[in-house]
Every structure is written in structure tokens, then in C-alpha cells.
Amino acid sequence: MGLATAERLATNGDRVALLDRDSDAAQAGAKRIVDAGGEALAAYVDVASRSSVDDALAKVRGEFGPVEIMVTSAGIDETTPFTEITAEAWDRIMAVNLTGTFHCLQAALPDMLAAKWGRIVTISSSSAQSGAARMAHYVASKGGVIGLTKALALELAPRGITVNTIPPGFIETPMLHRAHQRGDLPDLDAVIARTPVRRAGTPEDIAAACAFLCSDDAGYITGQALNVNGGWYL
């Protein structure tokens, strides 16, 4: 989803930075964008580490200037019965999904505040709206992302910065396929048959929503959850 969003924003004329713990994947994604005529760079980041986030954004600022848009799409999941979730597993999910979002947004905000303009989109999860069995730590972390989004939307709206969240539903991603291979999801065709629009979502569906929320056209929208889920939320 992060790569598709970067590609969509680059197509719209934005200079994009791909930040990832997998440096090779980030470099490959940036090369794809550049080869297609866009402007992109890649940087290593572990969002659970504030110093790593600060280092990555320093590279971005050095090459592209101030940060105007931030999309936080890094995330990890795990399926474990609640009584078997260890404190270490809880802390790791929170460190990446929730605290990582905090690090990225707080580190980028000075540029937006100085410019009196900014766009923030957090990627949360439809599971934080409906709940999900055996994923209490994941659901709690993504619920925190939704709450953080709303709090920042109110705090930053007078400063020209909008803050919205996209809770994806059933999206074809490596994370989804790993969950299916682990046996944590039923037959994918059966899930699609129950989806109101009768198909799985794509990373490009998320990217299109992100691009809109990051545009001037969405300047009067803040604190919202744009549910890109094919009708599952209903």
C-alpha cells in the first residue's frame, strides 16, 4: 500500500521518499518511480526508533526540502489468542504500529507548521472498527492510530494541516497472503464472495484515497476515517 501510494503521488507531481526497513525494496520502489519519470528517493527507517526516523527525514530534507505530506503505512500484525499474547509481543506491535506513527508524525510536523500547510494520512485498519478475534494487540494499536488521528486533526486544523485516516479492509497485500498461508484467514474466494462489491481491494484503491486526502481538494476534510473496504464496514 505504501509503494502504490508513493507511485500515485509521484504521478501527481509530488517528490516522494520511500522509507522502509527493507532498504532493497525501498530502493527498488524509488527506481520504479524514477524510471517512470517521477522524483523519488529511498531511505532506511525503523519506525520504532526515533533516531532512525530523524535520520531518514534528515536525508529527505537534504535532498527534497521540507516535508509537506506524510503517509504512515508501516505496520506489522500477529494472530494470537489474547491469553497467549506476551508482554514482549504486545510491546513490539505497539512500538511499530502506534509509537512508530507517533515518531513519524512528530518528526515531520515542524516543516508543516512552518509552511502553515500539511497533509497527514495514517493507515489504520477496519479491524479497529469492528474488532478481530485473536488480534487484540494489533486491533488496540490500530485503534490508537484512529484516536491519534482525531486528536491531531483538532489540534492542527487551525494551522492549515489536515489529518485523516484510512482503515483498509480486505486488501491484496503481502500481509494478507502471509495471514492466509498461516491459516489465519478462510478461503480468499469465500471472503470475496461475502464482500459487497465482490472483489478484494488493491493497493491502488488505497493509493487513490490517499492521493485525494493529500490534495488541495480535500482541504475541508479532517479528522475523518475514509473507509476503503468494499462495503465491509456496513
Description:
By secondary structure, this protein is mainly alpha-helical. The chain has one domain: Rossmann fold (3-Layer(aba) Sandwich). It is 50% helix and 11% strand. It contains 9 helices and 5 strands. The protein has helices at residues 2-11, 23-35, 50-64, 87-115, 127-130, 136-156, 174-181, 188-194, 203-213; strands at 16-20, 40-44, 69-72, 118-123, 161-166. A 3-stranded parallel β-sheet has the order 3-4-5, sandwiched between helices. The protein has a two-stranded parallel ribbon with strand order 1-2. Strand 1 (16-20), helix 2 and strand 2 (40-44) form a beta-alpha-beta unit. Helix 1 packs parallel to helix 2 (23-35), helix 3 runs parallel beside helix 4 (87-115) and helix 4 (87-115) runs parallel beside helix 6. The longest helix is centred in the middle third of the chain and has 29 residues, at 87-115. It is globular.
Task: Break the fold down into its secondary structure elements and pairings.
Blueprint: H1 2-11, E1 16-20, H2 23-35, E2 40-44, H3 50-64, E3 69-72, H4 87-115, E4 118-123, H5 127-130, H6 136-156, E5 161-166, H7 174-181, H8 188-194, H9 203-213
Parallel strand pairs: 1-2, 3-4, 4-5
Helix pairs in contact: 1-2, 1-9, 3-4, 4-6
